[in-house]
Specification:
Layout (H helix, E strand, L loop, with lengths): L12 E4 L6 H15 L5 E6 L5 H13 L4 E7 L2 H11 L3 E4 L8 E8 L3 E2 L6 H10 L11 E3 L3 H11 L8 E6 L5 H9 L4 E6 L21 H10 L3 E5 L6 E4 L5 E2 L1 H15 L4 E5 L5 H8 L3 E5 L3 H11 L3 E3 L5 E3 L8 H13 L5 H6 L5 E2 L3 E4 L3 H12 L6 E3 L4 E4 L5 E6 L5 E8 L2 H15 L2
Parallel strand pairs: 2-3, 2-4, 3-7, 8-9, 8-10, 13-14, 13-15
Antiparallel strand pairs: 1-5, 4-5, 5-6, 10-11, 11-12, 15-16, 17-22, 18-22, 19-20, 20-21, 21-22
Organism: Prauserella muralis
Protein name: Phosphomannomutase/phosphoglucomutase
Cofactor: Mg(2+)
């Protein structure tokens, strides 16, 4: 019995093609997924990104699904949120072949139930892993069929139906697709809009020849920032490899934090549904719950990670959710994350007034932040405990452990210290009233973590 725990992660399946993932294994995953969802659905929708290995692996997965008597709808090249759209619109469980922003040699499978409901370790992935490890039982009945269906135009029309850009002034927008799936989706989504599109790296190329398709790393925003300044654009958008995350830079090329985007979109969604609930993870800026509350909404704090956000959205009926990592979740999009829809909200907000984006976002950005700082440590638990001990009992300090260690120092700021699930790292995020306060608090915590 092979051990697949190295590639079956918390939220997806991911590994190096040829070494950890091959067509035979992926076919087994397809068959195991079919067994999991067979009681609820006769069909599975499958999409894939632009990596060289993706079409072959998607076909192998489809073979596994059909071997268990289920049918497959193949949507071919797609972004992850386009696959979620198909799962929601068609009412089918789905499988997306992508390794997001990982290097070219990787690939993976993101799975969902009908209506884009997530499949993670606790909601089916562990069961799929066990089935494959123990050997998939053969099905004696008739094999299912595969049909192809293009949903790109429907996906684009659905997104545009959720954000009204009809009154927008013309905007010049640079989009860096990073040779990822935004090069496939953006032209169709933007085509009827009052947008002068300046494309960067729209050629689909899973070897990522220009830069990693990971906009969370500032080094990968440099080309976008330069192009925005060069052409005098109103803003720039950067998507990751599977185009489910979107990062924004303003007219000066300065990054707009995902917390600021979360607050801006939350205000727009609350205008449509006054008193609604907005989810934010515990690393987003304190400005997010403040602004949600000021606009009559209810802010609910969660752990980091899409399964927690989606579960809390379902539980509370939330209209929107945002994370510090630029994942944005919408009730109107089956509670799934779509950076494209968040981008349309930013474009609409900018286009309906005359000022620049830097001015528009100023009211949503209230504090200074450190960004995520990683420290390699020998003992994550001991280092975290040392930090807790150092701050516990201080006047005006509150501590909670919803997700890692969050220490709130009132007006001095707050910080969160979380252990990585996959590496011997502690991740620190600090927020305070200004840069000097951020530096002081960061230095204080790192002295203990790295001491």
């Amino acid at each position: 019995m092979s051990d697949l725990s190295g590639i079956v992660k918390a939220y997806d399946i991911r590994g190096v093609v040829g070494e950890q993932l091959n067509a035979g294994l992926v076919a087994d995953f397809g068959a195991a997924f079919a067994l999991l969802i067979k009681p609820d659905s006769p069909s599975v929708v499958i999409g894939h990104d632009m990596r060289d290995s993706s079409p072959g692996l998607a076909a192998a997965f489809a073979e596994g699904v059909t071997s268990q008597g289920l049918d497959v709808v193949s949507i071919g090249l797609a972004s992850t949120d386009e696959l979620y759209f198909a799962s929601g619109k068609l009412g089918m469980p789905g499988a997306m072949f992508t390794a997001s922003h990982n290097p070219a040699q990787y690939n993976g499978i993101k799975l969902c139930r009908a209506g884009a409901a997530p499949v993670g370790q606790d909601s089916g992935l562990a069961e799929i892993r066990d089935t494959v490890e123990q050997g998939v039982p053969e099905f004696a009945g008739q094999a299912g069929s595969v049909v192809e269906r293009d949903v790109l135009a429907d996906y684009a029309a659905h997104l545009r139906s959720l954000v009204d850009l009809s009154g927008s002034r013309p905007l010049k927008v640079v989009v860096d697709a990073g040779n990822g799936m935004a090069g496939h989706t953006v032209p169709t989504v933007f085509e009827p809009l009052p947008i002068d599109l300046v494309p960067l790296y729209f050629e689909l190329d899973g070897s990522f020849p220009n830069h990693e398709a990971n906009p969370l790393d500032p080094a990968n925003l440099v080309d976008l920032q330069a192009k925005v300044r060069e052409v005098g654009a109103d803003l720039g958008l950067a998507f990751d490899g599977d185009a489910d995350r979107c990062f924004v830079v303003d007219e000066n090329g300065d990054p707009v934090s995902p917390s600021t985007v979360t607050a801006l979109v939350a205000v727009r969604e609350l205008a449509k549904e006054p008193g609604g609930t907005v989810i934010h993870n515990l690393i987003t800026s304190k400005a997010v719950p403040e602004i949600v509350t000021e606009h009559g909404g209810s802010a609910v704090r969660t752990r980091v990670g899409h399964s927690f956000i989606k579960a809390k959205m379902a539980e509370t009926g939330a209209i929107f959710g945002g994370e510090h990592s630029a994942h944005y979740y919408f009730r109107d999009f089956w509670r799934a994350d779509t950076g494209m829809l968040a981008a349309l909200h930013v474009l609409a907000a900018l286009g309906e007034q005359d000022g620049p984006l830097s001015e528009l976002t100023r009211e949503y950005s209230r504090y200074a932040a450190s960004g995520e700082i990683n420290s390699t440590v020998d003992d994550q638990v001991a280092r975290q405990a040392a930090v807790k001990e150092a701050f516990q009992g201080r006047s005006g300090v509150s501590i909670d452990e919803l997700d890692g260690l969050t220490v709130d120092l009132g007006e001095r700021g707050w910080f969160n210290l979380r252990a990585s699930n996959t590496e011997p790292l502690l991740r620190l995020n600090v927020e305070a009233p200004d840069d000097a306060a951020v530096k002081a608090l960061t230095d204080e915590v790192l002295a203990i973590v790295r001491g």
